[in-house]
Amino acid sequence: TPPDTVFPVITILGDNPAIVELGSSYTDAGATSDGGETVTSSGSVDTSLVGTYTITYSATDDAGNTSTATRTVNVVDTTDPTLLLTGSDLITIEVGTAFTDPGATATDNYDEDITVITTGTVDVNTIGTYTLTYTATDSSNNTSSITRTVNVVDTTDPTLLLTGSDLITIE
C-alpha cells in the first residue's frame, strides 16, 4: 500500500478573525479535524491589553501527517471615556462677578490618564447664556463630550443716589 500522504484538514470554529472588547472575557471556539484527530491549540489572548493575538491549532493523523491552522484574535477598545462634571451642569452667576470653571474629570477602561479639553468661554461682564463643552479622547480615538451651561444674570436692584438734599422746598 502506498504511504498515507493526506494531511488532516482543520476547520476553525467561530469567527476568524475574532474581535473581543478590551476588558471582556475571551473563550476560544476551538477547531475540529476532518479525520477525527485530536486538535490541540497554543497561544493566548490578553483581554486587558489592546492588540492582535494568534491561536494556533494542530492535528496529527496516525501516519504522522500534521496540519496547522491559525485564528487571529483582535482585542479592541471601542468604549468611549466616561466624563463627569465637577459640580452642577447649570451654574448661574451675577454679572460682573468672577467665574471659576469647576471642570470635569474623565475615566476610561484602558487609559490611566485622559486629558479633558474645555472649549467655550464665559463673559462675566455680559448678561447671557454660555456653554462650556468638555471633551475627552482615549488612545483608541474613542471620544465623549459633556456640556455645562453658565447663565450670567443681573438680579441686583439699581441703587439711586440723591444729589443735593433729600428735602426740597419749592415756593
What order do the helices and strands come in, and which of them pair?
Elements: E1 10-12, E2 18-21, E3 31-33, E4 39-42, E5 51-60, E6 66-76, E7 82-85, E8 90-94, E9 104-107, E10 116-119, E11 128-137, E12 143-153
Describe this entry's structure for a reader:
The protein is mainly beta and 171 residues long. It is built from no helices and twelve strands. The protein has strands spanning 10-12, 18-21, 31-33, 39-42, 51-60, 66-76, 82-85, 90-94, 104-107, 116-119, 128-137, 143-153. Strands 2-6-5-4 form a four-stranded mixed β-sheet, with no helix packed on it. Strands 8-12-11-10 form a four-stranded mixed β-sheet, with no helix packed on it. It has a two-stranded antiparallel ribbon with strand order 1-3. The chain is rod-shaped, with a radius of gyration of 34 Å. The relative contact order is 0.17. The model has no long low-confidence stretch (mean pLDDT 94).
